[in-house]
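Q: I'm building a small set of examples for a reading group on sequence design. Run inverse folding on the following structure and report the sequence directly after it, with nothing in between.
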């Protein structure tokens, strides 16, 4: 077993050192430092199990930490999968963390910082711009904690001018200004502040009617693109995609705890009240009972 333990963490250094010592004493290979001095922000777990005489890898890729405290108050998504494209790539991330050189592995499916995250999403917006200019279906949904990277924001403005409709749910910092004439007329952005901390990062691109879904650990900030090990995974399963879209649509329709990100303090006005966190809980409860 190998565990990566980041010793440097706000106010948690002593606890992290303690856990690292316990794991090392139990014979677990413990890695303390990432190559290149990068901070590791990805949320990854891989388990190998024997199934009918063969070894099978399972991996969990999350938007937040599997932490017993924050899991009670954060809203996150975790993908558990045996898809070999993803398990193989997660193994490569751990191999990177165990190495002493910052050498880019060849990833089949994962989008990994500091190698490819900004480049990948700039290219995805370029594709939406291309579709929009040809009169095809072109839109994107962006749910993040923070949106402050200049290159990404400029590309979103470019996409808006080309006719790409972009809907954003940004909980924290957002330097993008939606709704500006001849710049961001096709962009809307809301912030949801409620009982649970909105912490998930989920991204959907229309791709001319063949939507592509992503989720992961990275916000769209320079540090997440350039100075951290971050992992964003594509979501291939159609049922999970459908569930993610239902959740996003509920959040975009919130008119109780959502406020527009445009300098106004006025929430969306509607006769029918929709509080997204309660509505999502009810949706998942009903699905669990079926």
């Amino acid at each position: 077993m190998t565990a990566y333990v980041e010793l440097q963490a706000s106010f948690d250094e002593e606890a992290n050192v303690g856990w690292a010592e316990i794991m090392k004493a139990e014979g677990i290979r413990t890695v303390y430092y990432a190559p290149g001095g990068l901070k590791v922000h990805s949320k990854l777990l891989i388990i190998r199990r024997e199934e009918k005489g063969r070894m099978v890898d399972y991996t969990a890729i999350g938007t937040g930490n599997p932490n017993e405290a924050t899991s009670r108050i954060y809203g996150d998504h975790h993908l558990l999968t045996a898809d070999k494209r993803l398990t193989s790539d997660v193994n490569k991330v751990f191999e990177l963390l165990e190495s002493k050189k910052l050498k880019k592995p060849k990833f089949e499916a994962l989008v990994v910082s500091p190698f490819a995250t900004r480049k990948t999403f700039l290219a995805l917006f370029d594709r939406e711009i291309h579709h929009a200019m040809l009169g095809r279906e072109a839109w994107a949904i962006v749910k993040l904690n923070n949106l402050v990277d200049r290159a990404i924001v400029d590309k979103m403005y470019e996409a808006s001018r080309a006719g790409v409709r972009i809907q954003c749910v940004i909980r924290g910092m957002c330097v993008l200004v939606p709704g500006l004439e001849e710049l961001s007329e096709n962009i809307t952005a809301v912030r949801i502040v409620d009982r649970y901390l909105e912490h998930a990062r989920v991204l959907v691109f229309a791709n001319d009617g063949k939507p592509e879904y992503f989720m992961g650990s990275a916000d769209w900030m320079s540090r997440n693109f350039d100075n951290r090990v971050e992992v964003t995974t594509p979501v291939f399963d159609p049922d999970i995609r459908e569930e993610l879209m239902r959740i996003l649509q509920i959040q975009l329709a919130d008119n109780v705890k959502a406020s527009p990100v445009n300098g106004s303090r006025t929430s969306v006005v509607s006769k029918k009240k929709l509080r997204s966190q309660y509505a999502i809980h009810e949706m998942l409860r009903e699905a669990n009972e079926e």
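Helices lie at 13-25, 84-98, 117-133, 150-162, 222-226, 238-252, 276-289.
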